[in-house]
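Please supply some protein, with fold tokens.
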Amino acid sequence: MSTMFTLLKIEGKLVWKGIDILIFGICFPVILAALFGYVLSRDASAGSSDFELSYAAVITIGVLATGVMGLPLTIADYRHRGILKRFQVTPVSPLQILFAQGIIQLSSALVSFMGVTLVYYLLFDYQIAGSWFIFLSVYAFVVLAMYSIGTFIGSVVPDQKAANMWSSIAYFTMLLFSGATIPYEVMPRFVQWIMDILPLSHGIHLLKLVSTGRETEGMTVPFLILGIVTGVSLIGAFKFFKWK
């Protein structure tokens, strides 16, 4: 327990010194929440449902930035600088390293979640229609799925260049084509078919259903897809973890 606490303390200091986590993980989602709230809550042509649906999408941006971008880049950086190689000769396991990184990145995602929620609730009088308990449970499941993808990327890439490439591809693809920034509902049907391939699309779909009080409508397939993605990613990460 003392080893894990020390590892968390060190990781926390290193991660929170970086400006990337502040810009992409916290500021960007909060600013986008303010913009969406201002436009959609006042534009009668947009419809109130668009405003209500946007909350479930915006809260995933912080998860995406920290889990799919921040997590693998940090692990790859440690590998590049030989930090993981030095850990290899200590009692610290890959599981402890990945868990510590996940917890620290999650802390910024939660700050982002609270910031976006405060913007929607305090500035635009948003109210969730479904159960908060179910909503937070689904949110935690989406976090696990996105962080498992980031863990897999960070565990198997050989160097920083590869980590930058694959995490950027995963991040920007899901940022633009999963419904996090551009609403899924306004896309042409053939584009929606492409978007349905992306795991985050299913996570946002689940959050939208719960936030609008439709918990019983079509949740099985998204849950199965995210569950398979999570299982495959975590097993692959632990099996193919590279120390150097």
In short: The first helix runs from residue 2 to 17. The chain has a mean pLDDT of 82. Residues 148 and 231 are 8 Å apart (CA to CA).
